[in-house]
């Protein structure tokens, strides 16, 4: 018989965020959901060239993402993790970093990869099942996808420690989701980074769902409050507002670079598609919720703001054409990807030749010499 206390619903922790309190608190917004500048947006002003760059990269990311979903449905990719809806959180934050800063992604950061110069083929190779990862992390300062939730936060903290020991002033930036924040690894990473004052920026894309588990079942208190409890400086931002994400990440990354210790940005956003192409989100979330977030679409929002700032329709047409071109290139590069060379399985395992390899070669030579080979 189980203990009676186990059958009781536990009382919510004192700090649990009450939905009405959440509604009363609004993360930083420079552009409101309707695309109009907020008071903070008017105060800070808008750098129109930057806003155009962010908008264009978001359009490209969406075009690649939608094409990848179509390719998966046609059997050209084994799996795809959709990033539609999260373009502002990704594009806004990555544009705030210096090229020398190191990025550790989770598995949905395709927009980050595009901004870091990855080709569609490099982004798709892993999901076509022909490579462990599709790019050279050293070239782009962008490490491989991490599909084991949260592990990349520990990799990032260790990497940042290495950078500090090497005397370089790069910041290590790590992306993870709201669900990953429940992992022990992530909380250990917060603590390790804070106690050693390491140059790490944690970026959480809080897209409200960890597959079918809502944030309300993951968070006893908001993540930026939790991070502050570990000793991280933290920022909370509307993750569908690319300009606000850019502004907040710029402040956060500058504070880390100045040596003020690690920081966290929590970007409130939403995953419009399924968790992956294997998931059916209709089984756990409502059409009303989806519609409400569609009305906060990051691309539409910035487009309205840019139009109000005088950007002409013709410019948007050229950006849309660039998106269509990227989609066509994504398809062509995907279909042209050659199958894997199975010898590559061993190619990148050890930095130096492993002793077992030498022993195998010597044994094969022995078999050859004695005529006992197959
Ligand atoms: C250690 C670990 N536990 C469980 C899983 C299975 N899993 C894959 S994705 C996912 C949800 C992740 O949600 P979140 O961190 O919010 O990121 P999102 O997928 O929403 O971007 C889970 C539970 C995993 N990959 N790794």
Radius of gyration, whole Å: 23 Å
> Please, how many helices?
16
| Small ligands present | thiamine diphosphate
* Beta fraction: 5-15%
Got a strand count? 7
Q: What sort of overall outline do the alpha carbons produce when their principal axes are compared? A: globular
Describe this structure in words.
48% of the residues lie in helices and 9% in strands. Strand 4 (209-210) and strand 5 form a beta hairpin. The strands form two sheets. Strands 1-2-3-7-6 form a five-stranded parallel β-sheet, sandwiched between helices. It has a two-stranded antiparallel ribbon with strand order 4-5. The protein has helices spanning 19-24, 39-44, 48-73, 87-94, 110-115, 120-128, 137-140, 151-166, 184-195, 223-230, 242-257, 287-294, 298-308, 313-336, 344-347, 355-370, and strands spanning 102-104, 172-177, 200-206, 209-210, 213-214, 233-238, 263-268. The protein is built from 16 helices and seven strands. It is of the alpha/beta class. Helix 3 (48-73) runs parallel beside helix 14. The site of thiamine diphosphate has 14 residues, from strand 4.
Tag the structure with descriptive keywords.
single chain, 374 residues, alpha/beta, two-stranded antiparallel ribbon, 48% helix, globular, disordered N terminus, binds thiamine diphosphate
